[in-house]
Amino acid sequence: MLTIWGRLNSHNVKKVAWLAEEIGLDYVRHDVGGKFGMDAAYLALNPNALIPTIEDDGLVLWESNAILRYLAARYAPHLWPENLKLRASADKWMDWQFAFADAQRDVFLMLVRQPEERHDPAVIARGAEATGRMMAMVEDVLARQPWLTGDSFGIADIPMGAYAHTWFTLAMPRPDYPHLRAWYDRLVTRPGYAKTVMIPLT
User: The pTM is what?
Assistant: First the structure.
């Protein structure tokens, strides 16, 4: 059975748990990180002191997108395009997600992890502008294809899908991107997404 270590209010843990749900993979998840802390046993698995980490059939692996690629390759190859050009494009969006995470981090921490009296309008405006500008690139590709992976849902939709829920939920101004919204609405209908991603922001 797959073991996942990491608290579910982490975007990177959401990605891995969502994929496990998506493909019907049996797993157990242990809360680690944040208020749950990290003990010596966990740090022996992941000396980066980050989450998530998995163990699967004797393999210990960290780095969320590496985990997604491994799980897709082993259990759900239909989610990772066989065509090398399509796979490279999917990989591009997976890696680009980390740049989006950097752009969203400050406004997320401000609006979710800080009390309202400490909300800084300048930080919120800066985060809204930066993420809105980056989401324009996602809107552009989704105007030409229904999924970031291509013609069907796949591995590239998972990293940005986890962050899209936060982007649509944060109390900040955002542009109206109809193709992005339609993609998000399709994600919302997926049971694994609802279970692992659409939880209260904390």
Answer: 0.95
Strand 53-56 versus strand 59-62 pairing type: antiparallel
Determine if residue 150 is left, alpha or beta; phi over 0 gives left, psi from -120 to 50 gives alpha, anything else beta. Answer: left
Phi, psi at 54, each rounded to 5°: -125, 160
Sheet holding 59-62, edge to edge: 27-30, 2-5, 53-56, 59-62
Tens digit of pLDDT for each residue in 80-103?
A: 999 999 999 999 999 999 999 999
Q: Supply the angle between the helices 64-75 and 157-169 in degrees, to the nearest 10.
A: 130
Backbone angles phi, psi at 161, to 5 degrees: -60, -40
Parallel, antiparallel, or unpaired for β 2-5 and 27-30? parallel
